[in-house]
Design goal:
The chain has 14 helices and two strands; from the N terminus they run ααααααβαααααβααα. The protein is mainly alpha-helical. It has a two-stranded parallel ribbon. The termini are far apart.
């Protein structure tokens, strides 16, 4: 068993996959030269895997999950945010507890140096892609009319492309990717019977907003951050903050009697070909919503950092370095993205209604 695990974790296995896909390492003195593009012999495959890798980034989910709320169904967005947050937290913690290294270069070509300082197992890209794809597949039949087999094929294709992209970019071993997908699938399997019950508690319980804010904040402060500079604690706090704000917003919408969800009598909704008017309204929602979220993020970030620097008496010359301290990084990121999640789930749809583009 250990031999099989070592084989799946071997960097040479990743390098062989890269070479078969047309990506070759340029060695210079036994090391990969920095700042130089590696030779790419298969451009279509190269761009396909880079696009697939982008589908697994936190930035993609933070910018695109709101579109599910704005243009499809807030119910689906709520389910996606809940499952994405759970699997990402589990994956990030496992990385920093297990502390297994990423593939070595050489022989592997590294295309994403930013995350190379983080540990490897499990691949949170694989976890997020699996969770997002199959949460939609399992939740959508009660909301949208579609052929389940087609949805299954799409879910398998998207999650597989993201998993393979982690090998192509040289950021994960085969073991990292397989474990990420299997862990995410296990979490979906274990939690699926309780999704409906959790929905009711999240929307109707009087303690829901308190739990939605206090538990993620506690998890952010107690996150097992690794030695040295890593982005995992900050990224995890960002995810937990966005989920906390979204949860409070959905609870408030339920209390106010305006959830912006399709009427129950119309469910499941039939999908139809988009018209020019629907596409224009969708584009308008995206532009207005993105502008609102970016403005919220900038305002909350600026105000929270100023308040924290004043509280801890941080000199201006040390401001950038101080942002990495836990007592500053956690509250400023949590407040910032809680505000973003709250505005997305509660405010933006009301703005759309006022503008007549909902």
């Amino acid at each position: 068993m250990l031999q099989h695990l070592a084989y799946l974790h071997d960097s040479e296995l990743v390098a062989r996959f890269q070479r078969r896909c047309g990506l070759v390492l340029m060695e210079c003195g036994g090391r990969e030269p920095r700042g130089r593009e590696p030779p790419v012999r298969n451009r279509p495959l190269h761009f396909l895997f880079l696009l697939s890798a982008g589908l697994g980034h936190e930035l993609f989910y933070i910018t695109c999950l709101p579109c599910v709320h704005w243009s499809l169904d807030p119910f689906l967005c709520r389910r996606l945010v809940n499952m994405w947050t759970l699997v990402m937290y589990v994956g990030q913690v496992m990385k920093d507890v297990l502390k297994l290294p990423r593939p070595l270069s050489p022989p592997v070509v590294k295309l994403e140096p930013r995350v190379d300082a983080e540990y490897g197992l499990p691949s949170t890209h694989a976890m997020a892609a699996t969770a997002i794809s199959f949460t939609v597949l399992l939740s959508a039949p009660s909301r949208i009319q579609f052929q389940f087999e087609v949805g299954l094929l799409i879910a398998l294709t998207l999650s597989s492309l993201v998993c393979l992209s982690r090998l192509y970019t040289g950021m994960h071993s085969v073991l990292d990717v397989l474990c990420g997908a299997l862990i995410s699938a296990s979490i979906l399997f274990l939690t699926f019977p309780y999704w409906e019950a959790f929905d009711r508690l999240q929307l109707t319980s009087p303690v829901s907003p308190v739990a939605a804010l206090s538990l993620p904040l506690l998890l952010s402060y107690t996150y097992p951050a690794p030695d040295g500079r890593s982005t995992t604690r900050g990224d995890t706090t960002t995810i937990l903050g966005a989920a906390a704000g979204s949860s409070v917003g959905y609870w408030a919408n339920e209390r106010l009697g305006r959830t912006f969800e399709p009427p129950l009598a119309r469910l499941p909704v039939a999908l139809s070909a988009p018209t020019a008017g629907a596409l224009a309204a969708g584009a308008a929602r995206f532009l207005v919503g993105a502008a609102a979220l970016l403005a919220t993020r900038q305002a909350a970030k600026t105000l929270s950092l100023r308040a924290l620097r004043a509280w801890y008496r941080v000199p201006e010359r040390d401001a950038e370095r101080a942002r990495r301290r836990r007592e500053i990084e956690v509250p400023y990121k949590f407040v910032t993205y809680t505000a973003v999640g709250l505005v997305n789930s509660m405010v933006v749809s009301r703005v759309f209604a006022l503008l007549g583009i909902l």
